[in-house]
């Protein structure tokens, strides 16, 4: 038992955790003996399983999934974008994150999206070539292959090349995306590839991408040079410059992947391993968990649990935009923000009988980083893991498809603060830590995460802009409660990000009593008009050596296991 003081309220909180079924140490299996892939598209999941069946490990399979997603989910991610790949290698107990985030081009400058009077022109950071950062995903895939894979890169890329050449059938998600972005796609050759007579194609229509197939082939045979030099690089530079951008070979030469130490945290006996800066997600999630830890939210009623989760998110988000940016350019106080003592200070202002007003916290408003991205999880029979979250930012990125390359460029530049301290296109404000500088990585919310406990292991992540952070936090808490991959992916969601000072929630996230209870505490609630997120999760439970792969029922993805 422990006594917590909250603004004069003495609160008894129990430290006993909920008790999911766990395997005794003696029964704990060393290996899952089962492989698993969960991704947002069935063909991407099949690509991963195919590569495993050809002798690939989790890292080879991750390359296959990542590349395939870039072909069959061109609205979410791709070779013209970037991603984070959180890895665990069993043989030497290595944890690392391969950072393939895009970088600002060398011609970028702090005020590049401001007019002569210093007013932001947000469209410039969202549409077309000026919105694009230098792609990082190809470099990350080469790195994964060379350092961690067992198979040649060309083998792992075979399914993606096949899907690009032979085509894939459009689904409801694709149709919704092109309908939404039709006008943007018409600004480049993307319209020829994705639209039919200028309109969204009907269900069952096959999209073939022969140019992209050739681009991936050059990459498969040439590796890094097959993308960042020669024909592909030249065509990208020419296309970008003809469309009004300013890229050069030096941009491609300066692009490097960085391996970063993940963020580690503990929560009521579990270990959390998550994405470090330039992701804001790992820091925010560990901070929120530290704030929550002394409360026993696993054994309280729904109103109290949700109130406390929201109060933790409010505080974690307050710090996020202020302090976080590319650690290669700014000092990010990661250790301080993820320290339990820091959370003690934040917890001191939480009241159990009333919502805190965000205005009453000193602070800063966080940015929103885009609405579309994709996450996949991979586990192999040896227990190697990959949590990969990758993106071209908004649906179809900046909408610019490079002639002769057939690849969409991202619009990741919008993830920078286009003018520190002044609201951006979303009416949101960012900080100096995330201002634009040449060669800098823009802040991200992508949060591939592992949870390890006596129960076993979970690999999770999701798209969803700043909501990624609350979704992953809720997923971690579900896992602590004993949920498996399918339950974690399906669980209804709610979100708070400090400002706007309201809780957004999926219609089934709260009961009528919980809505009333939260309102009585002073929270403002906004029911989301749609379901959000696309969490693709794998859990490996030690009890019974059971692997479960869970695709988000909100999406069209596929989760499968492979029994050896
Ligand atoms: N572009 C979405 C993110 O990186 O958070």
List the helices and strands and how they pair.
Elements: E1 2-6, E2 9-13, E3 34-39, H1 42-53, H2 58-72, E4 82-89, E5 94-100, H3 137-148, H4 153-156, H5 158-166, E6 168-169, H6 172-185, H7 190-194, E7 206-207, H8 210-222, H9 225-228, H10 230-242, H11 249-253, E8 258-260, E9 263-267, E10 270-274, H12 281-292, H13 302-323, H14 334-337, H15 340-347, E11 374-379, E12 385-391, E13 449-453, E14 456-460, H16 467-480, H17 485-490, E15 494-495, E16 503-505, H18 512-520, E17 525-527, E18 537-541, E19 546-550, E20 558-563
Parallel strand pairs: 16-17
Antiparallel strand pairs: 1-2, 3-11, 3-20, 4-5, 4-12, 5-8, 6-7, 9-10, 10-13, 11-12, 13-14, 14-18, 15-16, 18-19
Helix pairs in contact: 1-2, 2-3, 2-5, 5-8, 12-13, 12-15, 12-16, 13-18
Bound molecules: glycine.
Residues 369-370, 373, 391, 393, 412, 415, 444-446 line the site of glycine.
**What is the terminal separation in angstroms?**
46 Å
Give the overall pLDDT as a whole number.
92
Query: Can you list the ligands bound to this structure?
Result: glycine
- Which ranges are low-confidence, i.e. pLDDT below 50, for 5 or more consecutive residues? 1-19, 365-370, 423-428
Largest sheet: 7 strands, antiparallel
Which structural class should the secondary elements be placed in? alpha+beta
Rounded to the nearest angstrom, the radius of gyration is 22 Å
Task: Give the tally of β-strands.
Answer: 20
Shape: globular
Q: Output the strand order for the largest sheet.
A: 8-5-4-12-11-3-20
């Amino acid at each position: 038992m422990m006594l917590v003081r909250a603004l004069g309220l003495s609160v008894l909180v129990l430290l006993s955790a909920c008790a999911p079924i766990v395997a005794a140490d003696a029964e704990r299996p060393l290996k899952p003996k089962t492989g698993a892939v969960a991704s947002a598209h069935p063909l991407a999941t099949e690509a991963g399983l195919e590569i495993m069946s050809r002798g690939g490990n989790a890292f080879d399979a991750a390359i296959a999934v990542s590349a395939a997603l870039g072909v069959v989910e061109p609205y979410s991610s791709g070779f013209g974008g970037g991603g984070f790949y959180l890895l665990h290698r069993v043989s030497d107990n290595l944890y690392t994150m391969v950072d393939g985030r895009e970088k600002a081009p060398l011609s970028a400058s702090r005020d590049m999206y401001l007019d002569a009077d210093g007013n932001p022109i947000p469209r410039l950071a969202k549409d077309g070539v000026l919105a694009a950062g230098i792609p990082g995903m190809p470099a990350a895939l080469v790195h994964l292959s060379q350092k961690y894979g067992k198979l040649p890169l060309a083998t792992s890329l075979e399914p993606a090349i096949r899907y690009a050449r032979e085509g894939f059938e459009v689904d409801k998600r694709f149709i919704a995306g092109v309908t939404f972005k039709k006008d943007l796609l018409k600004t480049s050759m993307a319209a020829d590839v994705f639209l039919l007579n200028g309109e969204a194609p009907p269900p069952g229509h096959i999209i073939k991408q022969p140019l992209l197939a050739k681009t991936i082939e050059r990459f498969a045979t040439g590796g890094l040079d097959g993308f960042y030099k020669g024909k592909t690089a030249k065509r990208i530079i020419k296309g970008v410059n003809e469309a009004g951008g300013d890229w050069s070979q030096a941009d491609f030469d300066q692009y490097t992947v960085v391996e970063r130490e993940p963020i580690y945290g503990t929560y009521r006996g579990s270990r959390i391993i998550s994405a470090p800066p330039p992701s804001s997600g790992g820091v925010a999630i560990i901070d929120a968990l530290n704030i929550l830890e002394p409360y026993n939210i696993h054994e309280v009623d729904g109103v109290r649990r949700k109130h406390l989760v929201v109060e933790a998110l409010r505080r974690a988000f307050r710090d996020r935009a202020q302090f976080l940016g590319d650690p290669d350019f700014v000092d990010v106080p990661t250790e301080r923000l993820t320290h339990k003592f820091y959370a003690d200070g934040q917890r001191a202002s939480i009241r159990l009988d009333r919502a805190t007003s965000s205005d009453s916290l000193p602070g800063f408003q966080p940015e929103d980083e885009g609405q579309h991205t994709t996450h996949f999880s991979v586990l192999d029979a040896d227990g190697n893991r990959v949590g990969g979250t990758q993106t071209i930012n908004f649906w179809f990125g900046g909408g610019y498809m490079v002639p002769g390359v057939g690849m969409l460029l991202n619009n990741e530049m919008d993830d920078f603060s286009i003018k520190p301290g002044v609201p951006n296109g979303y009416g949101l404000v960012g900080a100096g830590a995330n201002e634009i500088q040449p060669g800098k990585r823009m802040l991200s919310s992508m949060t591939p995460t592992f949870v390890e406990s006596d129960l076993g292991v979970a690999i999770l992540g999701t798209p969803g802009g700043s909501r990624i952070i609350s979704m992953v936090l809720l997923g971690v808490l579900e896992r602590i409660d004993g949920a498996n991959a399918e339950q974690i992916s399906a669980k209804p969601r709610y979100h708070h990000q400090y400002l706007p000072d309201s809780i957004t929630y999926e219609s089934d996230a709260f009961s009528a009593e919980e809505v009333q209870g939260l309102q009585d505490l002073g929270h403002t609630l906004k029911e989301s008009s749609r379901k959000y997120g696309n969490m693709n999760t794998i859990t490996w439970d030690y009890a019974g050596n059971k692997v479960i792969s869970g695709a988000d029922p909100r999406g069209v993805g596929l989760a499968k296991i492979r029994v050896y």
